[in-house]
Amino acid sequence: MSSKRTIIIASRAKAPRTLARTALGLASVGLAGGTLLSLDAQAQTAAATQAAPAQQQQQGGTVQLPTLSVQDQDAAAAPDYRTERSANVKLTEKLLDTPQSVSVISSQEMKDQGVTTLRDALRNVAGISLAAGEGGAQGDSLTLRGFSARSDIFLDGLRDFGSYYRDSFNYQSAEVLKGPDSAMFGRGSTGGTINQVSKTPTLESITAGTATLGTDGMKRLTADVDRALDATTAVRMNAMGTSSFVTGRDGAKNERYGFAPSVAFGIGTPTRVTISYLHQSENDRPDYGIPFLLGKPAPVNYRTYYGFQSDYLKTDANVVTADVQHDLTSGITLENQFRYGNYYRNVRITEPQLVNANVTPATVGPLSGVAIKRNAITARSVETTLDDQATASARFNTGFLEHHLVAGVELSRETSDPTRTAWSGVPTTTLLNPNEYQAFAGTPTISSRVSTTVDTVAVFAVDTMKFNEQWSLVGGIRYDHLDTDYKQTVAPAAAFSRTDSLPSGRAALVFKPTPESSVYASFGTSFNPSAEQLSLSAATANLDPESNKTYEVGGKVDLLHDALSVRAALFQTEKDNARVTDPNNSTLNVLGGDQKVKGAEIEVTGRITDAWQISSSYAYMDGRVIKSTTYSQVGRALANVPHHTFNLWTTYQLTHDLQIGGGANAVSQRVGSSSPVAATNLINTVPGYWTFSAMAKYDITEKISIQANITNLLDRDYIDQIHPAHLIPGEGRTAQFTLNVAF
Length: 743
Description:
The chain is mostly beta strands and 743 residues long. Helices cover 7% and strands 54% of the residues. It has a 24-stranded antiparallel β-sheet that branches. The longest helix has 21 residues, at 17-37.
């Protein structure tokens, strides 16, 4: 089987023409400069030797710490889907020995599938279902193990709060850690966390580029150039431009471009410094899909678009990160991560709503007569984050116990200042015949102008204690102190402030029957403060945080000489003081609810043979409202929590030059909300779906390959993203063709 590197891209999103030319120019410069800056083979061998971690585990009582670096670029080059370790510094052991469900989507798997966004990458993880944008927030939104994870997205271990749709052009991998984990990450993480792992400089010379064309005007270019400046210093640049309409959705359009330069000093030495910058801009014609009607998706052609041609979503994400690591001794490494992030958003989106919200089967009449209100959602905001996290990681012994301890301090300030506009007099339309070319009109009124600041001070420690080769105990604790200030300057003006201080914990016991297997039992907690989304209100300002706990038991095994990893788990997560409406005052909330999700998962990743690779997972979840002051909700399913989620992706190397692959995704029935619609007492319900995909890749030469990807192979209509009031159909059949070069 071929062992050469291929850098492949494909996409469902595409770039503006001028930006695409810019990205192509970057790729051309990188390709032309390859011969000028490449190291010769001997120098590369020497550099690789120097880059190897200086710390190695010694014999006897002293143990040295491996380098706490996420610069495992060999993993990016390798064609394997299976990953041995997490890039998260707080997960100190191999995934086999980590007492938690962790799914890693490798860059190779994303390339083979033609994935270009975080949203599509996460389709490879069972237990995740996608959510549509809300009135107050756009960008990536999803449900993980039954609970919203919109604010639980991280970039290289630090929170990435911005309201934008994340492109995968700079991904080394994407990791999903499941279960409450405030002991490691702070607020949130009720169902888990998502960590984006960035590409960083290496001493290996990389010059790679991709060009993709596809259906519905899809165009995409990427470039990846890495150069060593000397034996310990390297620079890297990744760039992307992408543009397309959305297959099967008349009117919707996506345009993005981005670049991510980085420089690393001291590679392979005791002191290592990496400085990186990520910029991503977006200019979309957004899509809030179709409305519900009588508890189901409105029976309309799924191409129907209720927005205006002049609708827009413009975002700019700018993130600067400095990471300093120093091996203080052979057993102690210090690390400090500093980040400044600035996220700009300017949006006007049309949400289709029934003019008669209380329509019943008896009053609905002919569909041609159903009137649709175009709810214009307009907002402009800047979110910022200033974050500094200092950690110390050490391996040491106390008597017969071997410890791997990670302890640290995190200081952060997050701000948000959205201004929202309400519109009156916006033209209505009809359910069956909306006109997207109709001129937008209406009278604007500023409905809110908000300023929120959340300051966080936290200390944490996670210790893995090994009794012997078979038994280990993991304990973790974090204490967070949050100060929140909120001001609303538009009438009725309001100002709130509150302070939350509370601990979070985790504990787990691991038993290894054999070196290639483990079984574990774990417990973890998390909390959701009222200001989790950088907002407060009169209804929530006086409430303590919601609290969550998870119990999980599972097992992991590496088979076929560690080529194939299999894991399975049973879990239960409970939010025992959920925010619900005060039964004595409907304008306030109380912590009187109880929500529970229980389920099971199984995942298989790796190689069955040298030529046959697989990535597959299945999750069963039962999410219910256990207690609520709204008694009609009790016993109801939680919103956007399907009983079944399944994914499969597999590839096979037919010949030395030809690889084929295919896969499937399935999501069972979901509900848009646990509350029934008042007029009909019906729950808004979304049917389940299956989609299939296929790919073929042919190596023209050692350095050039072509690839074809088809998604939604059968061109099925299905609902992809849901919201209590609207839902977004998935893309129709999409084909894309990619030229990959790697020198």
